[in-house]
Structure prediction request, 430 residues.
Amino acid sequence: MSKIQSIRGMNDILPEQTPLWQYVERIGAQLLASYGYQEIRFPILEQTELFKRSIGEVTDIVEKEMYTFEDRNGDSLTLRPEGTASCVRACEQNGLLFNQTQRLWYTGPMFRHERPQKGRLRQFHQIGVEAFGMSGPDIDAELILLTARLWRALGVIDHVVLELNSIGSAAARANYKAALVVYLQQFFEQLDADSQRRLLTNPLRILDSKDENTRAILINAPSLSDYLDDESKQHFQQLRDLLDGAGVRYMINPALVRGLDYYGKTVFEWTTDKLGAQATVCAGGRYDGLVEQLGGKATPAVGFGMGIERLCLLLEACNAVPTDIVASPQVYIVAVGARAEAQAVILAEKLRDQLPLLKLITHCGGGSFKSQFKKADKSGAQLALILGDQEVESASINIKWLRDEQSEQQTIAQPQLAEFLAAALHSKTQ
Ligand code: ATP
Ligand code: MG
Prediction:
């Protein structure tokens, strides 16, 4: 019978990869806690309308990337393509935004029907961060400084650059859009098909077209920065001053507009040249209009999402994966013979009572001394504890260091074992 395969673009994360994932997630969570951010969890499925209303009907995500289906009641549901809309929904529904600020983060899978390739999946994972109720550039700066600190903690700061732009108020963007459309219409025939379509639906997205002809036409296009409203200009300048003061380097990218409709004022991306076309590891911006757009009271907000797959790839590409993140067992118990096997189970449980942090594997499934010993070695354990008939008889245990050729085997009395292990593994259990 043919074997059932996973869905294309939805990867298994195997035991050999999970230590790196756990490391990235752990460092991220520690850092976020240190800045006073709290974790929030919300469902993976939402009503389709939530994403249509927030991300925008004519964005790539909503037009062609969402996993949308009818459930048994005939309701249209969508697997979340990103977390911001769900986070706003959850906060509103639970009264978290009323007269208060919130610093929140979440992590988990997101779903987009894209063409799978390295760093681009259909189920991918993000750490997302959202800050609500603060309108000034100080919180924008905080989010950027937090990400910069994360890159330093992960050892990749030298391989990422910060791209920054301001896309102004909704009114400023509307004025600019009109001017851009007038300009591009003169060259309509020379634009690529996607851009021709976007001219009518979402002209700002043409700015980040990859098509060469379109790019050439864009060189003389009106610039969004000339259309910025005074408030956005000032907000942007203050943000730049804060970043300059904190010593964070950035590049102003006037073509950075982001693919989601809800952004305004600050937008930013951290990009790398280590991952080919999937260059953005972290992206975000300000979205002061979204809460109101989703039915809440107007609430300023700013946030970002980072792709965990891309971060893991980046750490690998930069040789920044620490060598000590694999949690091998410390001790492997080998037991040969029925009496020894029974005693091993009890002994192991006693050790776990006495040394709760000890990483201990008890061999299961019997087998010869030789085959069990091979497994002990392969497990990566430091020590093998060996129980045979003789040891059972004398309530002793035989100890062998597996990673140290020099040290001899030794036999000790079972009641002394916990004390022995605590001392022997002391430096390694910290
Ligand atoms: P891209 O331009 O690469 O398509 P995006 O602008 O669509 O990215 P966002 O919606 O801003 O991405 O998501 C934030 C981050 O999530 C991205 O910077 C990236 O690290 C990650 N990400 C987005 N889509 C995918 C995907 N399909 N597979 C893996 N990671 C992704
Ligand atoms: Mg995308």
Q: What stands out?
A: Residues 259 surround magnesium ion (ligand 2) (CB under 6 Å). The chain has a mean pLDDT of 95. The first helix runs from residue 18 to 34.
